[in-house]
Design brief:
Blueprint (H helix, E strand, L loop, with lengths): L1 H45 L16 E7 L7 H17 L4 E7 L13 E2 L14 H23 L10 H11 L10 E7 L16 H5 L15 E6 L10 H14 L6 E4 L4
Parallel strand pairs: 1-2, 1-4, 4-5, 5-6
Antiparallel strand pairs: 2-3
Helix pairs in contact: 2-3
């Protein structure tokens, strides 16, 4: 009888000890769930983007890329395919939250300026499995960022035919019209698609102009320094026998031009088709 009572008391003690343990486990689980919801809320605030531009609300763009397209003369199908691939890669390689704008070289100043800014949003591959909807994120990336940007590229790379090619003027209009580009202190990129044959009232290679003649002209005083520390990539469309006999004149001019603007030395890639 005594042993039976001791066993009974022992069972009751073991049962009583389980209640605090279960309560502690429950508290940990509740805290974990609350923490997950808090973290999800913080993550949503951090990743919140403007509904129109898709740029981050809290800290703005992480970088800026302005693309200028100068196809006043038509290009071959091979050049067009290569150009499209290079511009697609430019977009794919850009860090998340990079702001893109596009402009065109045209003889009509009314067409100068920048397209509506659009920031590269989060894509499906970087979506959090627990706190984010990967399907919706991927859909937003494709439909609201990639598709409009590719449509602009397709439209601008199909434009051709003009009496003048004011590259410098169109570039400055693009830069000035891109929100925040001139004063942005983060990474800035300029991508120019062009044959580099500047032809306007300010300066023209077709009239025998070069850097020295431009430097000595009154127009040089209008040259600003809006591209400080910017990276420049030139996708050159070769036009043999047009404008200048020596391609080095073109390279020298634009190297000096971007140096005067405060930019880094341009990276030149030729869109050949042979």
């Amino acid at each position: 009888m005594a042993r039976s009572r001791r066993r009974h008391r022992s069972h009751r003690r073991r049962g009583g000890m389980g209640t605090p343990v279960l309560a502690a486990i429950a508290a940990v689980l509740v805290a974990g769930v609350a923490g997950a919801f808090w973290w999800s809320g913080q993550d949503q605030k951090l990743n919140a983007v403007d509904d129109v531009t898709l740029c981050p609300v809290q800290h703005g763009p992480a970088g800026m890329t302005a693309i200028l397209v100068d196809l006043t003369d038509p290009i071959s199908p091979a050049q067009h395919a290569l150009l499209t691939a290079l511009l697609d890669k430019e977009i794919a390689d850009a860090p998340r939250s990079t702001q893109f704008t596009m402009g065109v070289v045209t003889e009509d100043p009314a067409d100068w300026g920048a397209s509506a800014p659009l920031c590269k949003p989060q894509d499906r591959d970087t979506a959090g499995a627990l706190t984010q909807n990967a399907t919706l994120i991927g859909q937003r990336y494709r439909e609201r960022f990639l598709a409009p940007l590719q449509a602009d590229i397709s439209r601008l790379t199909s434009v051709s035919g003009a009496n003048q090619s004011p590259i410098m003027e169109s570039l400055q209009a693009l830069v000035a019209d891109t929100p925040g580009f001139v004063t942005f202190d983060g990474p800035r990129r300029i991508v120019i698609v062009s044959d580099l044959l500047q032809h306007s009232d300010v300066m023209s290679f077709y009239r025998g102009g070069d850097w020295d003649s431009f430097r000595a002209s009154p127009a040089f005083q209008r040259l600003g320094s809006t591209l400080s520390a910017a990276d420049v990539t030139i996708l050159q469309v070769p036009r043999p026998g047009e404008g200048v006999r020596d391609p080095r004149i073109l390279e020298d001019f634009w190297a000096r031009y971007f140096d005067a603007q405060g930019a880094h030395l341009p990276v030149l890639k030729r869109l050949g088709d042979l």
